[in-house]
Amino acid sequence: MNNLKSPNGEPILVVDIGGTNIKFGYSCNGEPLDYRRLFSTDVLRRGDPVHALAAMIGDVVAETAIAPQAIVAAVPGFIDTDGDRVLHAANIESLDGRRLRSELRRLVGCDVLLERDAVLTLLGEARAGVVQDANHVLGIFFGTGVGAAFLDDGKPFRGSGWALEMGLMPFHAEGPIPQDMRPNCLESYASGRALQGIAERHGVAVESIFLAGECNHSLAEEISRFIRYQAIAVGMAAAMVSPATVLLGGGVVSMVGYPRDTMTEFVRDQVPLAETGRTFDLRWSMHGWSAVLHGAPETVIEHSRQKHAACSPATFRRPGCG
């Protein structure tokens, strides 16, 4: 366990629900505390996922002796416009249809807020990372799945509730599709699960796949195709939202030996530079998954503003106001 001092302020417990691991940390007074805890996501797939999450939260609170003011959960998938129901989490289908916010709040006894993981990560990088000076930022995160978010003048673009869920974007490409994945979508070819499939076909550990490709020609060809698919996805998203800055992150691009220079060249070929005359501003995530710890306070602030606006005297009285 990390050395942890008792915080002065109202701490936020942040739960980053990933396809491989569930990561815990705290934020207090806008800054992350020196605490990290990981659990395997497989626990959510074996039984009731909400009760399992509540048990993890109980373990963390008991271990730290820090009772959170609120819990912010980063969800890898579609969240309904009510901010409560998980519409679909591609790599954790046990969460589909669950009213995660209200169910978890009843079990843990404090307020719970849900946010798409990509949005929370990008907010963190904008608040305390490599895109603090940027106003129109497209963030794409290649992990177990593929997520994306767009900040328009610092505010998340949400469309009709969710937007830029790129992992399920229709995508036709070459190569086998990992078992139990939706066919002909981006995640089938450009995600961490797709990379795992490549590693298994070549008999190498996925953790060292990019290094292994340096001395294996057939593996190098598959890796090159994998990186090109990622670059195509970046180019497609950039053409749609016209970002001034592109931020790339996620567990895949943080792996040892990931060919960032090659990816940069591939992306440069895909984005409409000659057609638009735009400069090319590609940056790489600074904080990794811990960016959500920097982004969580922004989610709490946004929720407070929405609640205040909904309950202002100028509006009709609504349930939960006053």
List keywords for this structure.
38% helix; alpha/beta; globular; Nucleotidyltransferase, domain 5; disordered C terminus
Explained architecture:
The chain is α/β, with parallel strands linked by helices and 322 residues long. The protein has two domains: 12-117 and 289-310, ATPase, nucleotide binding domain (Nucleotidyltransferase, domain 5, 2-Layer Sandwich); 132-285, ATPase, nucleotide binding domain (Nucleotidyltransferase, domain 5), CATH 3.30.420. The protein has eleven helices and 13 strands. The chain has helices at residues 42-46, 49-64, 100-108, 117-128, 187-190, 192-202, 209-212, 217-241, 260-270, 273-276, 291-310; strands at residues 12-17, 21-28, 31-32, 37-40, 70-75, 78-79, 86-88, 111-116, 136-142, 146-152, 155-156, 245-249, 282-284. α4 (117-128) packs across α11. The radius of gyration is 20 Å and the shape is globular.
Helix fraction, binned, reads 25-40%
Summing up helix and strand content along with how strands pair, one would put the structural category as alpha/beta
CATH superfamily of the largest domain: ATPase, nucleotide binding domain
Briefly note the CATH topology name of the largest domain.
Answer: Nucleotidyltransferase, domain 5
Low-confidence stretches: 315-322
Q: Report the C-alpha radius of gyration, rounded.
A: 20 Å
Helix and strand run? EEEEHHEEEHEHEEEHHHHEHHEH
Largest sheet: 6 strands, mixed
**Which word captures the global form?**
globular
- Number of DSSP-assigned strands: 13
Overall structural domain count: 2
CATH architecture identity of the largest domain: 2-Layer Sandwich
Percentage of residues in DSSP E strands:
15-25%
Q: Note the total helix count.
A: 11
How far from one another are the termini?
Answer: 41 Å
